[in-house]
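Lecture 7, part B: from sequences to assemblies.

Below are the input chains for today's worked example.
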Amino acid sequence: MIRSIDKKACIGCKICEMICPGDVIVMNAESKAEIKYAQDCWTCFSCEMACPVKAVDVHPFRKPRPMAW
Amino acid sequence: MRHDHRLWEVLKSDVLIIGGGFGGLWSALRAAESGAAVTLVDKSFAGKSGHSYFAGGAMMVLLPEDDLEEYVYDITVGNEWLVDQELVAEVFKGSYDRLKDLESFGIPFRKKDGTYVWTKARGTRNVKNLWPEHATAADEVTILRKVALARDVKVVDHVYIYDLVKDADGSIAGAVGIGVKEPKNYLLHAKSVVIATNSGGYRGHHLACELQGTGPFMAYDAGARIKNPEFHYINIRPAKHEIEGSGILPAIGARWTNAKGVHYMQTYDPVLMDRAPVSKIVVAAAKEAMKGNAPISIDVEGMTEEEREKFRVLQVSHGWMPILFEKCRREEGYDPLLDNIEWQPAYEANKLGVDADLNCGTAIDGLFAAGMARPLGINPFTGWSIASSTWSGYRAGESAAEYAGGTDLKAIDFNGLTESAEMFLQPLKPEQGVDPDSLVHEIQKILFPVDVLIIMSESKLKNALDQILTMKAERLPNLMATDVRTLIKAKEAQTMMLSAEMTLKASLMRKETRENIFYREDYNAVDNKNWLKWIFAEKGRDGEINFSTEDIPFEKYPFKPGN
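Predicted structure of the full complex, as structure tokens:
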């Protein structure tokens, strides 16, 4: 699940906001990318891979969900 | 909420394609090439969303020197005879041409000394999987998007389609949707429509977190038939982290192990052992757990360094896998290739789809279906998904363009649209109600336990169905949304409820076991006398699900059970 976006590093290019399949990221009033709906993150790492300044960090933890046992 | 459903943004085209994965993008490419004006719409960002993004990249291909009959036989047997053999042949007949298309788009496949490098598809004797060089499936769909744009396909991102539109005669007229990022109503007015939205699921795990089934169930609501509602793709995943490798690790030396350290797969499949088909591995893990032998892990400690290196090259060399492995090492203190971790079965996708013919046409005039939104067999062989989605996308695009060439845009009944929008917007009305996420969580709690859809029995299926029907009566009508985001989640929750009811009822019908794809503990043998049949579901006039069966037409197929 997405963990953090470094606001100081973010250059406001909107790429992560545009490509995020779960629509997790929004642009805030200062035109910086901000995590708004972390619980809807797909853990696909698209934002982390696409960020030109490496400001995004996604953690490989799975979301809690009912298990088989 | 500032959302006026009387205002429509209208986009017109010859062919509308819903979904931006392999099926949808291939449809768009082919329809555009056939001369149609094409619009492709995706709920996220076409080429970076959906199930295709997560695919491994392997594609089954019939090379010119290969024998088509051998390929058809292997896939038929792997599907326990429950597959359309004519469809399988069609998938392979075009596969080499599509490979050449991909290469012309700038996606080269691995070669050595001028010939393609291939691996034998797991569970087959002869079928070849080819691997893209320096690319994941995610890169492939991203490139397909670029080719589509170059062919003047109008790509509309971030619009969620929630209903199909028909004219007074019942022919397709388009679809309606809502902007995900801005609350705007869309009418996508088209002469023909291709549904390429994948099938559905219950957000079972990471690779399947977006699968909820709106596409096929929109078609069901509009009068199309659903085929194969009793089958699922249940995968096996690490219990804590989103790591890949269940397919390939055991294929190159790792072994499934229980809590007592026993490599148990030899008991369940003495021939293939750890390389058995995934559903067999899932059933074996489930039986071990039910005997008290959990946790289950993949024993990687006994792998050789050479085997580990092979895995790194095939799976951890590109895309998001290197990031993931690095973070497990750095932050969680383990290496998935050196340390044994717990794995558990996890629901991936259902295998149902909109019943469609070899031209990808459905029961609705002008509606076509491609990719996993249509039935493409039941066994989730590595490499089959991309091959069959590619074929069906290409074929659906061609058929939809041809259909559009012979018809005009149909008249739109705007009163009907308003009705459709009002139904979709209904969850905005209550001030108190059921949160869609919590409803989905309840569905997961009912369906995911090992003894419901993995080790099936009449008593457990009925018990799960009772719980689903109670939820349908008591909680579903009170779904509540507060904005577009939760509104979409409400529609998805409604779809998953319908899907759960359908699948449990259909699973109760099939009173037999198909070793590699369907396991009933109370009917644990194959029944070729009564069950060489497909199950179909249609919406009845009373709104209830009507089921029917059809004999598989072996009289026109090359292979029959027992020969």
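Note for the exam: The longest strand of chain B covers residues 8-18. Keep this in mind when comparing with the next example.
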